[in-house]
Amino acid sequence: QDIAFMRMAIAEARNCTSVESAYNVGAVITDGTQVLKHRLLSPQCALMALADKNISTANTTMYTTMEPCSTRLSSNVPCVKRVLNAKIARPPNFVHCTGIEELRNHGVQVIVVSELEDECKALNCHLAK
After folding, report:
1. What distance in Å separates the CA atoms of residue 48 and residue 38, rounded to the nearest whole number?
2. Are 92 and 117 in contact (CB under 8 A)?
3. For residue 108, which of 22, 90, 91, 101 sits 20 to 30 Å off, Cα-Cα?
4. Contact 78, 44 (CB under 8 A)
């Protein structure tokens, strides 16, 4: 089931327009029985949309094509703080930053869908210059 949800997140990331200043990121949030949100591309957008509709994300699983960011250059709140505030139970890990470490330090179970890691990384090959 993890692979099916990750494939949905990858499909969302493919909908992004590649630009040199941004990552292509896809996200799916599920409670295990239904997909709560997947038609908005980034974890930030998905969490904001669910919050706007007062949909609880406590104990859900988030599938993203990248590790939630731990710092932002813009004035936006880092995704790792959004995940913690939303009480997401299981976000994944794909890039190097301290987001996963921070989530684990707060007791969040982090999973890696390693079978799809290369496919997720390929979505942002435009930034590997």
Report:
1. 12
2. no
3. 22
4. no
Q: Which helix (H) or strand (E) holds 45?
A: helix 43-52
3-state secondary structure of 42: coil
Q: Which 3 state secondary structure label does DSSP give 77?
A: coil
Q: What is the pLDDT of residue 37?
A: 74
Q: Which two tokens stand for residue 50?
A: 């669910």
Specify whether the CB–CB gap between 125 and 16 falls below 8 A.
no
Cβ(2)–Cβ(28) below 8 Å: no
> Which residue bears the tokens 């390693």?
114
Q: How confident is the model at residue 95 (pLDDT cuts 50, 70, 90)?
A: very low
Structure confidence at residue 72 (pLDDT)? 76
pTM, rounded to two decimals: 0.69
